[in-house]
Amino acid sequence: MQMVQAVSRFGALFADWVFPATCAACNSGIERGAAFCEACRESLTPLPPSCSRCAQPTGSFAVTCRRCRIHPLPLDSIVAPWLYGGELATAIKRLKFNSDIAVARDLAPMWAPALAIAIGVHELDVIVPIPLHWRRRWQRGFDQNTILLQHAMRVAQLKTPVAFALRRHRHTPEQSRLPAAARQSNLVGAFDVPPRFQSAIAGKRVVLLDDVVTTGATMAAAARTLRRAGATRIVGVCVARAE
Ligand SMILES: [Zn+2]
Ligand SMILES: [Zn+2]
Fold it and tell me: What pairs with residue 208 in β-bridges?
């Protein structure tokens, strides 16, 4: 037994030497198990009290935001543990645009508990990640939502089924590069549920997963598609919500 412990301790030391733990934003050396160095951690902001429907910060959990009172999103709720910004934004951009996929592993402990709680509280049956268009996935070499989800499920030990039931069949411009007013029209007709996935969605309570929610336009377009396929409840979960 002592021999096994010594070998595993040697393995950890060797891993630290070959792959030292680094901050997900600035790459400086950190303790293994942390995602950010102390300086970058100071820029992280937990989501303040927000609209229960769309997670837009409102200053109170009891207040539904003006937009949701007039035109509620076609989701039952959006859950976001963090406000998008600071060095969390740097880390997510490193994942998406610099192919730094280790960031997905580092971020997992920061949002996996929110995913697990949402699944438990809303009694959700299946997780559906919002996909990239195949052409962007091919350019990028990976789909960040799939990798984020894999690590979060491992951290939270989730057994909820995952269905890649949404297809993005239009190659739309990157939402983050568009002004807010153009985001909704950019996504009209962007998603569908292929026939072979209809039974995975009909009558199901769905977690819709995205890395970041800004206006909610992407989640709304995906949720409308899932509703048409028969989803009975849709809760969006993201790592971070932009104001
Ligand atoms: Zn840092
Ligand atoms: Zn709202």
Answer: 128, 236
